[in-house]
Protein: Antibiotic biosynthesis monooxygenase family protein
Organism: Microbulbifer halophilus
Amino acid sequence: MKYIFEIRVKEGHTAEEYADAWVRASELIQRAPGARGTELHRKIGDPNTLIAIAHWDSKAERDAMEASHSPQIDEIIRSAANFVEVRPIGEFEEPEWVVRHPE
């Protein structure tokens, strides 16, 4: 499954500041069972809007991590909370249909 959310970086701050916190938190979160990686994308034409995608084996494993993650993760998230607005987009199943360009 994928957990997707949008991040808007507030005036006077940069996406790189958020990315620093994102990487530090992600390194810890990725130790949880079922964690399968994260991605952070910058919106074309709007460098202060990002989309984050966290990949998990299942919603249950993501929920378990969320319910019991370490205080260190909470501290990292709080350190970025003052200069970003985070809007969850949602939780998505793996795609039923994938169209890929032939190689």
